Amino acid sequence: MSDETPEPALIRARNQQQAFDWSLVLASQGIECALDHNAQSGAWQLLLLEAADHTRALAALRQFNQENRRSRWEHPLPDSELNFHAGVLAWVGVLALLHIFSDQLTAGEFRYAAAARGEWWRAFTAVWLHADAAHLASNAIMGTLLLGLAMARFGAGLACWATLLAGATANWVALEFRRTELGYGLGASGMVMAALGMMAAQALPLWRHGRRGTRVLLAGLAGGTLMFVQFGTAITTDVLAHAVGFGAGLVLGGLAAFLPPRLSSPANRLGGLAFVALSVGSWLVALTR
């Protein structure tokens, strides 16, 4: 962002994501603007509808940048407008550690009969367990990318809480359709598909920016849906749980995208606390009953 702009009512952004975030900041301050994309140069910028708002807009964006400095865990992906949150590697490490002791953690499996009797915690603990090394590797690889992107986009705490909630919801919906089966569910695939849904829905507020914003939104939704079809509907996978996780991610990601910028930091902290409480609390209940 620079004060030296060729026009008093124009603010240049580094990329589409930054332009989108800045437009939400200005909207929260009552400053009307429109997204503009130069197809020839690839530049994204904000066009203020009132030139007199230029100084006030720059001040609001400076404050936003100061309050939302990129964490040291976030890194830009090469040749991309996306950031990646390296904190997702801690999630992968916990998955691997729990898999080593999985023989002693059967109390955390989502067994349909037990869950139907009211053992609610299994919906959350099962997200952390995997049937074998191949199952673990598949979810860890996909999850590293998708959850890492969602954590950078929405905040680590908020993304982890939302995807965990979506994964547990997928387990409960699967139970409702399979009450007559004596089976069980395992794996973080519902959580991974939820991260994909959140990323697909991240541009939902752009519908307010006319045709260009709508095209960006539809492209994101179409891309996310195609990835879901490719990776979430294989014959050997639990398509129902994947679909519910993806759908829940779309809803939660869409809601998170509309969150006012001034609330993003407190929401992220609360989400992180909720994620830890649900994860640790459900395992404590599972291992002490």
Please tell me about this protein's structure.
The protein is mainly alpha-helical and 289 residues long. The protein folds into 2 domains: 10-67, Hypothetical protein rpa1041 (Alpha-Beta Plaits, 2-Layer Sandwich); 75-288, Up-down Bundle (Rhomboid-like fold), CATH 1.20.1540. The protein is built from 11 helices and 7 strands. It has a 3-stranded antiparallel β-sheet, with helices on one face. Helix 3 runs antiparallel to helix 6 (133-154) and helix 7 (156-177) packs across helix 8. The chain is elongated. The model is unreliable at 2-6 (pLDDT under 50).
Structural class: mainly alpha
Helix/strand order: EHEEHEEHEHHHHEHHHH
Q: What would the CATH topology of the largest domain be?
A: Rhomboid-like fold
The percentage helix is 55-70%
Q: Indicate the multimeric state.
A: single chain
| Terminal Cα span | 56 Å
Q: What is the beta-strand fraction? A: 5-15%
Based on DSSP secondary structure assignment, what is the total number of beta strands? 7
Low-confidence stretches: 2-6
CATH architecture of the largest domain: Up-down Bundle
CATH class of the largest domain: Mainly Alpha
Q: How are the SSEs ordered, and which strands pair?
A:
Layout: E1 10-13, H1 16-28, E2 33-37, E3 44-48, H2 54-67, E4 74-76, E5 83-85, H3 88-100, E6 110-111, H4 112-116, H5 122-125, H6 133-154, H7 156-177, E7 184-185, H8 189-200, H9 210-232, H10 239-257, H11 261-288
Antiparallel strand pairs: 1-3, 2-3, 4-5, 6-7
Helix pairs in contact: 3-6, 6-7, 6-8, 7-8, 7-10, 7-11, 8-9, 8-10
